[in-house]
Amino acid sequence: MQYDYNLSRIYELVINTNPCYAFLLEGNTLIQNKMVMAHVIAHCDFFKNNIFFKKTSKEMIETMACNAQRIEGYESKYGRQEVEIFLDAAIAILEHVDPRAQLGLRNDANKKEIVTTEYEDLFALEEKGNRELNSKVRKEKRFPAQPVKDLMGFIAKHAVGIEDWQRDVLWMLREEMLYFWPQLETKIMNEGWATFWHLRIMRALDLAEDEAIEFAKMHSNIILPSKTSINPYHVGHAIFEDIYNRWDNPTQNEQRKFNRKTGRGLEKIFQVREMESDNSFLRNYLTEELVEKLDLYLYQKVGHEWRVIETNWEKVRDGLVDNLVNGGHPHIEVIDGDYRGSGELLLKHCYEGKELDITYLEKTLPYVYLLWGRPVHIETVIEAKEVLFSYDGKKNKRQLL
Fold first, then answer.
1. Dihedral angle sign, alpha carbons of residues 38, 40, 43, 48
2. The total number of structural domains that make up the chain
């Protein structure tokens, strides 16, 4: 609607496939589409080479087309309203997947390297003790044995009150969410990388004067700082420029302290592009000088007003990083799928100083109930007190733990 009323501009659409696809608007001017092409080439490079995209499906366009056809079939068979209600419920927990399992990182923690040493007999005794302890725990057993972050997958696999078509919808949405998750975790980097390169490519072209002016206006609008949130184009581009300059022309102190050689700017930014996510990108490369230059700060609502609450550069950096953990979503785990021995679902919010939005929470629990088919509960912390929120199919309840 904003686009139709000319209130905002959609310049391009680029899709992480093999090969990558980009779509240009017919209404764009030639210089706009030149910039768009320069921009999306860098996006494609990022998709191909950043480690967090390593396991993403490159056939997702075809997969989504098949998914859409299956859902249309379910609408014809079971009724559009029935399918829409279930989709609403599933989308309410869409972000609660486990992207690290897709990267193979979860399994690594369970693998044990076999090493023979002179103390092997002591290790064997310890292992025996652990087995006995685990056996005791299993007798008191909880299901699952260990907390599970993949709420979507757990419900799709273990919910007993849903039909096969509903289970299929859950698996479809989970697969699509895992495809999009790396984009949640690399938004600042990805847009910063594309902006860094479209600027260099466009400057290398032989532009006419009017084209150069039009491009300068477009670029300025793209990197314009926001008053209420981080502009990923602005911040990401500034950090990549800073990294390039510091590694390409290090100071004498940097050369001496870090053994940093001159002329390594390109090498360094390509390394960063490959190995980092937004979280580590800001943690490692958002410097005091950049925080001051970009005028970054933390703010929150005090009464009826929004106020700046922190300007110390390290606390600002850490606050921004904290907001990016888990893609900016609460970390919630499945603790017990047979809570109270009656098949109820117990979840736990891994509280790290940020409270859940209670209104959002109490409107989401009925959706989880619809998916699970039995009462659902979630443990969290409100005003420094442990609280259990529950929904039994009729109303929300809360109690102190």
1. negative
2. 2
Distance between CA atoms of 262 and 10, rounded to whole angstroms? 39
d(CA 301, CA 293): 24
Q: Give average pLDDT by consecutive 10-residue segment, the chain, 401 residues.
A: 70 87 87 93 96 91 94 96 97 93 49 40 54 50 88 94 94 95 96 97 93 93 85 96 96 90 95 96 96 87 78 91 91 94 94 92 96 96 95 93 86
Let me know whether 295 and 332 are in one domain.
no
User: Are residues 46 and 195 both part of a single domain?
Assistant: yes
Is the same domain home to 255 and 354? no
**Contact present, 16 and 240 (Cβ < 8 Å):** no
Q: Spell out the residues 6+ positions from residue 297 whose beta carbon is closer than 8 angstroms to its own.
A: 308, 310, 311, 316
CA gap 323, 187 in Å, rounded: 13
- Which spans in 252-306 are helix H? 252-258, 265-275, 278-285, 288-293
**Residues near 117 by beta carbon (within 8 Å), at least 6 away in sequence:** 123
For residue 372, the enclosing domain spans 328-400
Q: Is residue 267 part of a domain?
A: yes
Between the two ends of the chain, the Cα-to-Cα distance in Å is 46
In degrees rounded to 5, what are phi and psi of residue 192?
-65, -40
